[in-house]
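Exam revision sheet. Question 4 asks you to relate a sequence to its structure. Input first:
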Amino acid sequence: MTGDADTFIPTFYSHRSVFITGGTGFLGKALCEKLLRSCPDIEEIYLLIRPKKGLTITDRVKKMLNNKLFDLLRRERPTSFEKIIPISGNVSIKDLGLLPEDRKMLSEKVSIIFHVAASVRFDESLKDAIFTNLRSTRDVCILAQSMKNIVALVYVSSAFTQCDKPVVDEVFYPLENVDWKKTIHTAEKIDNEILKVFTAKYIHPMPNTYVFTKRLAENVINDFSESLPCVIIRPSIVVPSISDPIPGWLDNFNGPMGLLVGGGTGILRVVHLDANVFSDFIPIDIVIKVMIIAAWKRGMKNTSEDNSLHIYNCFINNTKSISLRKLIRESFRVVYDIPLEQTIWKPHTIMTNSGLVYYILVLVLHIVPALFIDTVLKILRLRPMLLKLQRRIYMSNCALSFFVTHFWQFNTTNLINIFENLSAANEKDFEYNNILNFDTEEILRRGIISTKLYLLNEDMSRLEQLRRYRKKMDWLHKSIKLFFVIMLCYILYSRL
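Answer key, structure tokens:
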């Protein structure tokens, strides 16, 4: 690729139209914002949006744009929002649920595709996961083939699609003995209940349907890369932003922030993980930069010049990785300084790598207290809720346990190269030096502040009051522990 490092990235996107699936999700929102702000001459951004009950696709776009993420863009270039055009569709429906006239329009106007949409539920049924994660990828590729001016198709996969390997390179790994075409055909023809019977055997050695279908979707992209300019991005666990455009921005409780909130409120008392495993995460603003740069780099050559599949492992290299033990300890330091409103007990979480120990501690520290508190709530004629919540926490931890009890080494040569080869002009909006300089505790601090402000709607002016309440919880926790120690000693003494 001659001179691509000197090509101005906003110029590449200038007067080009982009099509995004999953545009209203966590990554999709951030991608829209960054494209509009850093590539101001982009023609249009078409978002595939599924109508929801009581909300039209236009309503959903308006709701999305009210997010704090877009405040900077709203101040600087509010007219840029007019470039976002919703397209009715659904990735879980065959052919993306597109109307013929919309398909024709996209084929004529779009030249860059970001396929971001996916079901991230680890317990999704095999049929639904195949439709949403696998068949949709095939249908996006078929749509791309009809586009007259396609220059890049970026597929957002997951670093954990290769979880059966200790070392993951930035290459394509075929899934042996499973054909993606036959898999789609099987899901379309066989009843869901029958599929459930042989799901575990069919997806082996993958730990869940999410990873299995995302892995197969990479096979789809690889096959179509012979005729399409394809890119695969494999992010690890995506965490709040470092700085761009808002420090600590997030819009969900997924990943470490969910654990932090659960532990910080005193609800999550025990987790099943290997405390010595290094955390695999990457801030969302870095992921978005990789996506935009990767599409630019791929689009600088057509498939006749370069028909290779470009792959990037999106992961912070090991110099910035920290163990889960240290991550959780730093999280509790943050939540002690910035307490949460709904704290019901002293924040503290036990880590164990033993499935048996975890199960026993869940019964003692989660289920028994939840039953007691829910009984009290029933007596007071209030709605019991804690047992139901603890069941959800248990199911979530079981689904995640595979990923927090294993360690992988992700090689990131391609990722580092696309940043290091940027020209000075491109570094202004797309540099990655903050990858090397960020502070993990500061990301957690900003993340918990954003969680309080934007997800929990809590008042930051009440911190001192909450700190005093937290100290009371500390004393109550110590007092009860002391009481149980005294009672145990008394029982043992009385038996002598």
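Marking note for examiners. Residues 9 and 296 are 7 Å apart (CA to CA).
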